[in-house]
Design brief:
The complex is a heterodimer.
Chain A: H1 2-16, H2 18-32, H3 39-47, E1 52-56, E2 63-66, E3 68-73, E4 76-81, E5 95-97, E6 100-105, E7 108-112, E8 130-131, E9 134-135, H4 140-165, H5 173-193, H6 198-220, H7 231-248, H8 251-258, H9 268-310, H10 317-354
Antiparallel strand pairs in A: 1-2, 3-4, 3-9, 5-6, 6-7, 7-8
Chain B: H1 2-37, H2 42-71
Helix pairs in contact in B: 1-2
Classes of the chains: A alpha+beta, B mainly alpha.
GO molecular function, one term (chain B): hydrolase activity
Protein name (chain B): ATP synthase subunit c
GO cellular component, one term (chain B): plasma membrane
Chain lengths: ~350, ~70
């Protein structure tokens, strides 16, 4: 019994160390080479977006999933696979397409001016002879986003399919999903929006909750994209809440913003300014909270592992790897908590906008 | 000059953490008191505690992001 238990513990520990494999691989190889290990560069590379999905390895032996680059230039749409850059992000490898040449400089695609054969930089490493076209590429983040969408479709179409045919509770994984759906309804929507109106907002709240949670968890996997740690993604999520408040806010809500009842007249304009500011700060706070929490979590784990290479000693690994493991497990909690908080606050703001004020 | 910016950013991050530490500590302490008084309501108190702690943590992270922007200018 005890032997079995300790075996289980060892297997669990080994499994939990898998997320670090891809980091360790990469850093070891970076270390062997040329210049000193640059922690900031490594961290930025890991939390940033990219035009190809890099799993592990370096150079030609790297496991990389090439993704399509789609650009809107003056001469129309241009598309090619990111593998044509041959893993070059320093702007040296020029890709010729439709009579135009493109380079990838730190994951920004530049179009070289006509006639230019090579990239020229000024003293501050800005590209001199090129401009950035509009970039609609399927980047790593977009691909990870699609993956979440597919996963959600698979999960919830099967759940709704079950309920079309049966009236009893589903079994297995669907039962788990149903528990979470009921959690969102009973703990988030009902208390914050109220019994009369919550049904209308359930689709939005459920979608946001599961989208954030699934992308957060996928983001913790080795080699995964940092989708919810991308400010553009969280801006969009915050805007959805803002638009829902705009559309559904009732008369009493707008009256409380622009002309607060029950206070002296000279205070009303001051309150209006404060309330209007608050109206915009709500979604901004939502957006920064999610972005900062997820990005900070990734940075902490990467910094702890980076310490090994900054101090150039394997002994540090004995401390920093268990600590990084602890933070990663904490991130599992944060992944759920942030999805919950985002949904909860969205529900709260919507609830404030649709609330009926009977008397004053 | 570069070092000054990095130092200021680190100081900012430290101050943000200080504030969050005080905030989360107070929330946790009050929640402990409340649970000791009414152990049967511990579930509800825990939920409220976690929400409040996450809000405080969010504010601290605003500070961390601001200092990050300072370092990575």
């Amino acid at each position: 019994m005890t032997a079995q238990k300790s075996f289980k513990i060892i297997v669990t520990l080994l499994l939990t160390s898998i997320p670090f494999l891809s980091f360790s691989n990469e850093q070891a190889e970076e270390q062997e080479g040329k210049e000193k290990f640059n922690a900031t560069e490594m961290i930025m590379h890991h939390i940033g977006d990219a035009h190809s999905w890099h799993f592990f390895g370096e150079g030609e032996s790297a496991a990389v999933l090439p993704l399509p680059v789609i650009l809107y230039t003056d001469n129309g749409l241009v598309s090619f696979m990111s593998s044509e850059f041959h893993h070059d992000t320093e702007g040296h490898h020029v890709v010729e397409k439709d009579g135009m040449s493109f380079v990838n400089y730190h994951e920004n695609i530049y179009r070289l001016n006509p006639g230019a054969e090579e990239v020229e930089f000024d003293a501050e490493h800005q590209i001199l002879n090129g401009s950035e076209p509009l970039d609609f590429s399927i980047t790593k983040n977009v691909a990870a986003l699609f993956l979440t969408v597919i996963l959600m479709l698979v999960f919830f179409l099967s759940l709704s399919g079950h309920h079309k045919k049966n009236t009893h509770a589903p079994k297995g994984f669907n039962n788990l999903l149903e528990t979470l759906v009921l959690f969102v309804r009973d703990e988030i929507a009902l208390p914050n929006i109220g019994e009369k109106k919550y049904r209308k907002f359930m689709p939005f709240l459920l979608t946001v909750f599961f989208f954030i949670w699934i992308t957060n968890i996928l983001g913790l996997l080795p080699g995964a994209a940092n989708v919810t740690g991308n400010i553009a993604v969280t801006v969009s999520l915050g805007l959805f809440t803002l638009v829902l408040i705009l559309i559904n806010g009732n008369k009493a809500y707008w009256q409380h913003i622009f002309w607060m009842p029950g206070v002296p007249t000279f205070v009303k304009p001051i309150l209006a300014i404060v309330e209007i500011m608050g109206f915009f700060i709500k979604p901004i706070a939502l957006m920064i909270r999610l972005f900062a929490n997820i990005t900070a979590g990734h940075i902490v784990v990467l910094s702890l592992l980076g310490l090994i290479f900054i101090l150039e000693s394997t002994g540090v690994a004995g401390v920093s790897v268990p600590f990084a493991l602890f933070i990663t497990v904490l991130e599992l909690l944060v992944a759920f908590l942030q999805a919950f908080i985002f949904t909860m606050l969205s529900a709260l703001f919507i609830g404030m906008a649709v609330e009926e004020h009977e008397h004053h | 000059m570069e070092l000054l910016y990095v130092g200021l950013a680190a100081l900012g991050a430290g101050l943000a953490v200080l504030g969050a530490g005080v905030g989360v500590g107070k929330i946790g302490g009050s929640a402990m008191d409340a649970i000791a008084r009414q152990p049967e309501a511990s579930g509800k108190i825990q939920t409220a505690m976690i929400i409040a702690a996450a809000l405080v943590e969010g504010v601290a992270l605003f500070g961390v992001v601001a200092s990050l922007l300072g370092v990575l200018r």
